[in-house]
Design goal:
4-stranded antiparallel sheet, about 10% strand, alpha+beta, Aminoglycoside 3'-phosphotransferase, Chain: A, domain 2
Length: about 280
Amino acid sequence: MVVAVGDVVVKAHRAGDAPAVVAARAALAARLPELLAPVALPGADLAPYVAVEGGRAVTVWPRGVPLDREDPDAAPWRGLGGLLARLHRREPEEAGGLAAAGPDRVARSVEALRRTGRDDEDARAVLAAAATLAPWTCGQAPWPSSVHGPVLVHGDVHLGQLVDAGAGLVLLDVDDLGVGVSAWDLARPAAWFLTGLVGEQEWGSLLGGYADAGGPLTTDPRGPWPELEPAARALTVQTAARGLLGRGGLPADDDLPRRLLVEACRRIAAGGSVPGPL
């Protein structure tokens, strides 16, 4: 739960997020110029950034200026790419052993959909696609040597995570921050591109900004897709599952984003690409 109060935003973290882990992630964000820094709390239970209320971690953050949702064409895709590249080039030891939580969130979203007992065509398509995912993309196995890691990753990248904190764009939300693979941070935008939710120009700007800033994912002579596609499949399934659950900004009705994502899940379940790079 997030509540804006004057110039700050107060966040009550998920009940399942250990306060000590939230405190470690908040402290890491405070040291990284690519992320929004938390506000120090006098008398914090887990100094200096986390209070604990009812067993849940509570953090406070500056209220940055979000992107203009009424002008999607002005979205800073190239800037986001550069921001991710700089994060990925940092030494993973800076994370102090924190593991990125993104793959675990995929598994939880799929399990939440399964628990609803839905047996309609859309739910069956998403669950069938989930059964084909590479185990490492669901937190069920270590990542393979074929993907680039370990690197510092944000873990839940989308345009809603970008704010202007006064000195340029930074990423907010530390819930998934930690050590992972570089493909994960580009996987959601890649999934949007491959399902038609993001255009070729926007995707090209993101990837160009990432490459120009020395992002490690783009140094492979094969190009980024061999690494990106498994993670993009997983993020497609997660986002579709959350859409059917009415979470993640996708209403649980017959809207275009949901239909595109579910159709992509049908292709994944049938053994096809997502539909594959253009």
